Amino acid sequence: MRILTTSALTVAATASPALAASGPFFSLSNTDFVVTVSFILFLGVLAYYKVPGMLGGMLDKRAEGIKSELDEARALREEAQTLLASYERKQKEVQEQADRIVASAREDAKLAAEKAREDLKTSIARRLAAAEDQLDSAQSAAIKDVRDQAIMIAVAAAKEVIAKQMTAAEGNRLIDDAIAQVDAKLH
């Protein structure tokens, strides 16, 4: 620090405009001399009170503060990069999970569509079978109705024919034969 003060005085003395002034330099009426002496005294007071050391200390302290801020900023940056990597990893995992969900949903939809087709085929087959059963039943009922009508018409026609051809004596004989047959079957 003393080297700095001595070198500052040397520079001040050699670069002073006092060398360019005319007349006796070491006179109190020479303003250049007074300014040079005042400057040298000012530098001396600064050196006495260790101002350059304080300035150096302040600069060192400021440098340490900046260094600690830079270290803190580096740590924060590394933490941010770690968080970013973590979030990117999570985003990738979420994307993969979403892709799996979509694939699963597509597969489920495909299976549901196949099951719906099978259910529809089964339902159609059941309805066709029910319709065929109804047709068979309706056909059987129609055939039975036609037979019943034919029998009724035949019985009515036979009744008229028999009524026209039968006499009272023949009717009595038929009644007696029917009673005999019933009696024989019962005993």
Automatic annotation (TrEMBL):
F-type ATPases have 2 components, F(1) - the catalytic core - and F(0) - the membrane proton channel. F(1) has five subunits: alpha(3), beta(3), gamma(1), delta(1), epsilon(1). F(0) has three main subunits: a(1), b(2) and c(10-14). The alpha and beta chains form an alternating ring which encloses part of the gamma chain. F(1) is attached to F(0) by a central stalk formed by the gamma and epsilon chains, while a peripheral stalk is formed by the delta and b chains. This is ATP synthase subunit b. Pfam families: ATP-synt_B. Residues 63-141 form a coiled coil. It comes from Sedimentitalea arenosa. It is a single-pass membrane protein. PANTHER family: ATP SYNTHASE SUBUNIT B, ATP SYNTHASE SUBUNIT B', CHLOROPLASTIC. GO terms for cellular component: endomembrane system; plasma membrane; proton-transporting ATP synthase complex. GO terms for molecular function: proton-transporting ATP synthase activity, rotational mechanism; proton-transporting ATPase activity, rotational mechanism. Residues 1-20 form the signal peptide. It comes from the Bacteria. Its main location: membrane. The keyword Cell cycle does not apply. It is found in: Cell membrane; Endomembrane system. The chain crosses the membrane at residues 30-49. The lineage of its organism: Bacteria, Pseudomonadati, Pseudomonadota, Alphaproteobacteria, Rhodobacterales. Keywords: ATP synthesis, Cell membrane, CF(0), Coiled coil, Hydrogen ion transport, Ion transport, Membrane, Signal, Transmembrane, Transmembrane helix, Transport. Belongs to the ATPase B chain family. Component of the F(0) channel, it forms part of the peripheral stalk, linking F(1) to F(0). The b'-subunit is a diverged and duplicated form of b found in plants and photosynthetic bacteria.
